Amino acid sequence: MKLSKATLIRLTRSGLERLGYKAIKDTITPAEGLYLKVINNDYYISLGLTISRNYDHLFTGAYYLSRNTTWATIGADVPKMSYQRIGNFLTEEERQMLLGGEYAQQKNGDAWWCSNSEANLLEFFEAVRLTENRFLRQPNLIEQINSSNFINELSDMAKKTILSVEVVAKNSNEAYQFSPSRPIDGIPIAWFNAAEKVIRERNAVLNVDTVKRLAADAYRQHILNS
Q: Full-prediction pTM beyond 0.90?
């Protein structure tokens, strides 16, 4: 049976939580398992898991560092180094110890783990332990993130959403065009309404998807920093 998102989260949750990550209920990002950690109060490292489309039990993970929590937000002026697969930071010797098959023989590049092997899961957790700081210590990573106009805009809108959610929740008379009719991922409707209001005021791209992403980002930041 092919690996499912629910099974992958169940298999990885305790091991990643021991490494300081928080499992996030998420149907908005493309991750098939999303984990978050706060870095120095202002930055969030997201670890998103991906299930292989070609092999039933294989999965991998990628880091994303930003001032927002929307894993794999790329494009515009977002630095490419802020979104990287775990395998990019393993040494040749570590690949031989922590990977199997063809991936162990490669000097660098992608890395996948087998979900139906306890030993492979432990090797995945060890790979995360070894590579997280290497990812974070890439030269000029923070400077490039701070220089991204796109990231600065998302960060500012998330902060405004957090600040306005209580006021929006009390005003039940205002109509919202792009907010959902019921909570998504346990996020109360007021967060989507606040996100839509902020996006409209900023004259940014406004649609169902941008409202969902901003509301989820603001809500996650609020929860992680509470």
A: yes
Residues 58 and 83 grouped into a single domain: yes
CB-based burial label for 212 (10 Å; 0-12, 13-18, 19+): buried
Q: Which domain holds residue 64?
A: 5-140
Residue that is last in its domain, among 140, 163, 198: 140
Torsions phi, psi for 185 (to 5 deg): 55, 30
Q: Coil, helix or strand for 129?
A: helix
Tally of domains within the chain: 2
Percent of the residues in the chain that have a pLDDT greater than 90, as a whole number: 88
Let me know whether 174 and 126 are in one domain.
Answer: no
pLDDT in tens, 108-123: 778 999 999 999 999 9
- Mean of per-residue pLDDT scores for the chain: 95
